[in-house]
Amino acid sequence: MSVLLIEAFYGGSHKQLMDLLQEEIEDSVLFHLPAKKWHWRARTAALYFMQSVPVNPDYRILFASSVLNLTELVALRPDLGKLKKVLYFHENQLTYPVQKCQERDFQYGYNQILSCLVADVVVFNSSYNMESFLTSIEKFMKLMPDHRPKDLEKLIRPKCQVFYFPVKFPDVSRFMPEHKLDHVEKSACTKGNEEDGAQGNWCMDMPSQEKEDRTADLIEKNHSNLGSAHSKTQSGFCTPLEERLPNPLTTEEKLDKPTSSQNTNTCPKDNNQCVTLNLCKVSGGLDHQQKALHLVWPHRWIEAVYCGCYPLCPKALVYPEIFPAEYLYSTPEQLFKRLRNFCKKPDIVRKHLYKGEMARFSWAALRGKFRSLLTTEPKERFVTDGAKSQTCSLRQNL
Which of 130-139, 284-293, 336-345 has the highest mean pLDDT? Predict the structure, then answer.
């Protein structure tokens, strides 16, 4: 095995990415810990992997998420320190939301900075994530009482890249309203990255039986995940922000029951399953103006929009990077007015065709970049004069 995948918090998006890479990258092997007790994973995972990862002279690349203290691992396992080390940031601990500033634990952010210094490539899932991390380093290090290191951002920034989180969009055509289905096929069905040479329709690139299986999985996962306001896929050293918010679905009104003659629709009998996905028409003899709109907190926006949902996000954080301006609001008052208008005129949402781009988040579009990232490079690359010079510079600054 030439690609060593290590995940200290194997759950949610962390698990999704590692599973995808293991499936798509030949000659790879995955070692992981369950997604429990995040604080302890960040503190002690390196010691666990020191013992659990066997010595293998075939390893050439190490890919890990930023939960792992990479510095500790390569110090405990010098053989792994010789590999091309890639660190992937799903989130960063310099800006991750906390209830009060004094609650931020210095050690977690400090560990991530150290991991970046020993990594060869640092990858972020968005430009916002990258910039918020890099520009916060200097302020973060001022928490130290004295003898603060200098120019850490300058040392780390040249290693940084942005790779959006890759999504394998399933075929949901049989659940989409016709007008949205045509739009999705035109906007999302695209050729893969030219570097990878992939061609064809990325949202239709699986056998028909597998499509049905994937679609069934999507319904099951979304029914259990999207219908809850508590995200089990968020990671961080503090309680996730949405866990402190009320669940908007607990007050959801039930739709009028259809008459017996109308109860022949193809939607699932469970109304929540149907409306949470926003994929199929709800019968019952009501026209569009009478049917209630349903608000969901999907946690996975790039999938929710693909399935036909209308995004409405704050004009902050990463959202302006992902969504066009018309889907953003600046104040709670603006959000209220938008929602009130949608409730008065629900067809604005039901007939709307998303104006953003989804293809750039697909695995087909990102496959080439990830394959290039995980391409084997000679070990000698890391003992060049340039690398020695950078190491000397680092020691002087420290």
Answer: 130-139
Phi (first) and psi of residue 34, to 5 degrees: -60, 155
Model confidence pLDDT, tens digit, residues 194-247 = 444 333 223 333 333 444 444 445 444 444 433 333 333 333 333 333 333 333
Residue with tokens 């790779």: 163
Are residues 123 and 89 in contact, defined by beta-carbon separation less than 8 angstroms? yes
In the sheet that holds 3-10, the strands lie side by side as 28-34, 3-10, 61-65, 84-89, 121-124, 160-162
DSSP class per residue in 260-316: GGGTT-SS-S-HHHHHHHT-S---SS--TTTSPP-----S-HHHHHHTTPPP-EESS
Q: How far apart (Å, rounded) are the C-alpha atoms in residues 128 and 266? A: 41
- Which tokens is 267 given? 């939607």
* Strand stretches in the chain, DSSP E: 3-10, 28-34, 61-65, 84-89, 121-124, 160-162, 313-314, 328-329
| Six token digits for residue 376 | 């084997």
Neighbours of 40 (CB within 10 A): 11
Q: Where are the domains of the chain?
A: 3-165, 173-361
Identify the H or E element spanning 71. Answer: helix 70-76
CATH class of 3-165: alpha beta
Distances (CA, A) of 114 to 71, 119, 157: 6, 9, 13
How far apart CA 244 and CA 124 sit, in angstroms, is 26
pLDDT digits (tens, 9 = 90+) for 127-176: 999 999 999 999 999 999 999 999 999 999 999 999 999 999 888 888 78
| Confidence (pLDDT) at 282 | 39
